[in-house]
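the two lines:
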Amino acid sequence: MKELVCIVCPRGCRLTVDEENGYTVTGNSCPRGAEYGRTELQHPTRVLTTTVRVEGGVHRRLPVKTSRAIPKGLLMAAMEEAAGVSVTAPVKAGQVVLPDLLGTGADLIATRDLPALP
Amino acid sequence: MYELIVIGGGPAGLAAACKAWEEGLRHILVLERDQELGGILNQCIHNGFGLQRFKEELTGPEYAGRFIGMLQKTGVEVRLDTMALQIVPGQDGAPHQVHAVNGKNGYQVLETRAVVLAMGCRERTRGAISIPGERPAGIFTAGAAQRYLNIEGYMVGRRVIILGSGDIGLIMARRMTLEGAKVLACVELLPYSSGLTRNIVQCLNDYDIPLYLSHTITDIRGHNRVEQVTVSEVGPDRRPIPGTEMVFDCDTVLLSVGLLPENELTRGAGIDIDPRTSGAKVYENMETAVPGIFACGNVLHVHDLVDYVSAESERAGAAAAAYVKTGREEAALRTIALQNGEGITYTVPQQIRLEARPRPAEVFFRVNRVTGAAALVAEDAAGREVARFRRGHLAPGEMEHIVLPAAALQDAASPLTIRMEEVSQ
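prediction for all of em together
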């Protein structure tokens, strides 16, 4: 039995996961909590949010995220990949700035519109 | 003349303006001092926003983008790079005046029927909490560091101590770590964290960053830049215990020690401030003591979830629209004052006006300690319990919310006290 705090939403449910019986989750208030309990103990994942360099925009950095959760162990490697990315303004929210990050199938996508400097 | 001027284009102002438009106002102006809308959400690049509101997990910029998109579909006028300087309330139903200045239009005096105050809050600084020691560079509020890093593109330090375990501090612990800094410790004066539990897990535990509860910074040393920080344990009286000092070699201190509603304009307009929230006193429809001036979001009381800011601000926007369309609302039959009792630190609203048509009233507040199972009880002046709500877990870091049923309010004698009762298991 493992106890963990669910991080899916601000509610922070206290989960108990039974690793010996098919990773059954109790203490969750929603199906997403059960899903979190199962994956967290077998192959934990996180959505990565960071920024990349942007040229000619109203700001110098563009906020980005992975289009879906990636393995937790790859976060630092993913940060290095993001450090090599540079895009040119204007950028639209949802635009892919780096496809198939580290072969995970997740894309790095812009999370805001970033207009070019007038 | 405007029907409504909204001061601030962050999450509160955006939601209030959109709602007022939806409710039929057509002459709405939003004043924003930054060069773009969205407020603090623009620098909150992490995710976790919008789970209540949009049923999906968004980043701060995405959440702001949703509301900016909604606003752009309306005819609401927006002035950016514009600073509101003063509000002069109109007397006896005369229009209110908003004084503002920007580089394009110069100094302007704008007239409006209604005003929504949505200026947000500021961070407490080193000066506000009097940390001893030398005064080198390298000490930032967590939000200032967040702006440098996420918008301006500057890394603020390499070896970091974070004082305070508020959510912004926790989020910055993870962010600095991902950017290659070493976060040596997160230090919290209280015996519990004021941040959300999920942030302790995903921002500290995920990266093996130690959290020292009941500890504080007792010395900062450094000639030009921070070089060393001393952390000491504190006793139940919150005073440092001699002999418990730990010294960290570091170059940066981030402060996440609380937020203060930014109410200079509110005070200047002669609107009553509640010392418990540092925000205006409001009625159930978010109206202040001055008819036609409403307040919502972090300028009213500090929220932990933007989703609740949006909901509260929509109530303010709808109430402002009703005020403009129908003049003064129907006269209240009577007013019930709300008081915070045992275990409760404040209530918003502070007063509920009862009208001919009974309506339920939402009340927001915080508790003063972490508890297990507990009940939230509303008791009237005659000592009668008018409502009771059960909770499995309460914490000061999580804003609580109850809905008082219309029927319960009709018979309640003012004042109504909200208190917490711990339930032994």
